[in-house]
Amino acid sequence: MAVVVAESEARHILDIAEGFMKSQVLFTSLKLGIFDLLDKSAAPMTAVRISEAIRADTDATKRLLNACAGLGLLLKENVDKETGDGEYQLTQATRTFLTPSSSTNLGDWLGRLAVVFSSPWGDLPKAVKEGPTFSTLNGLDRGRTFEDVYSTEKYFMGAMEGLTTVFGARTASAFDLAEFQNICDIGGCTGPLAYHLAAAYPKAAVSVFDLPEVVKVAEDRRPVAEHAERVSFIPGDFFQDPLPPADLYLVCRILHDWTEDKVLVLLTKMHDSLPQGGGVLIAEHILDDNKSGPEMAHKYDLHMMLVNGGRQRTGQEFKRLLGSVGFTEVTVRSNSYPFGHVLARKQRV
């Protein structure tokens, strides 16, 4: 192996191994409130002022801030050539995606990832050895419900909003859905994806069907926009209660939570509730049919295995599941980030 190629391969392996270090820089900065502090500041701040504000060691804070600047999370300016000290401010991307004042804040989603960093991700060797036994003891099958998750996990609701707030327009435009007049987002949380759909399809009525605990707070998070007024919220449990009437059901990052038997129950329920020619749109991290990629789908396939016993699936697996309960005309589009999409129909008249 040529030296240059060998070094490149070694660097690739080291990049994978050291990736957790980058994550911890980001997670720690979020946890200490550094980005929020700089967002509220009228001017760039020195490491001394930041360390005082967060009640931390000055030298350690300085080193963390420099790491953030090196990763492109902060801008460092007015640098003293002798000491290397300077002032720090947010990049536009950090202000947009990592501050509570932003409507596209991903902070809660990243906060949830930070929580699971040590456990259950630290338990991956145990999970691989034990397989379903680990999932049964640690996942939703052990009797823990999503009501429990919403009520006990600090970041969960915000985490469920984050990705669809930022990337939901891609789901709304993955297929031309203009023919559907009544769209229902099953398990759609406080409605970020529903708002994208309402904006994209002004003639459609859009609803969100989710747990009563979620619907209670949804109104407080409704954006001020004309299209947002066309989104309604319906409380219920999609396994226990009848589904609201619709000619298109949407499930975004829902099916990956569940084992195949539960997925079939929900798909059957949607099929039975739809009119002839109605549809179901699935948004998930879809694996390639040969299961060799993409990277994001593999990461979240392991994540679902660890946190609740779920899994990511291939387009072919979705086709099989959908076909088994009567759906036809199944189309898979899996080459978009972060979600792939599947559209299927109930048999037309």
Automatic annotation (TrEMBL):
The keyword Methyltransferase belongs to this UniProt entry's keyword annotation: yes
Annotated TM spans: none
Superkingdom in the source lineage: Eukaryota
A single GO molecular function term of this UniProt record: protein dimerization activity
Pfam families xref list: Dimerisation, Methyltransf_2
EC number: 2.1.1.4
InterPro entries, per database record: COMT-like (IPR016461), COMT_C (IPR001077), COMT_dimerisation (IPR012967), SAM-dependent_MTases_sf (IPR029063), WH-like_DNA-bd_sf (IPR036388), WH_DNA-bd_sf (IPR036390)
CDD domains from the UniProt entry: AdoMet_MTases
Domain O-methyltransferase dimerisation: 15-99
Residues annotated as domain O-methyltransferase C-terminal: 121-327
Entry keyword set: Methyltransferase, S-adenosyl-L-methionine, Transferase
GO BP terms in the entry: methylation
Keyword Transferase among record annotations: yes
Active site annotation, chain numbering: 256 (proton acceptor)
Subunit structure: Homodimer.
Protein's job: Catalyzes the transfer of a methyl group onto N-acetylserotonin, producing melatonin (N-acetyl-5-methoxytryptamine).
Name of the protein this chain belongs to: Acetylserotonin O-methyltransferase
Species, as recorded: Branchiostoma lanceolatum
Gene name in the database record: ASMTL
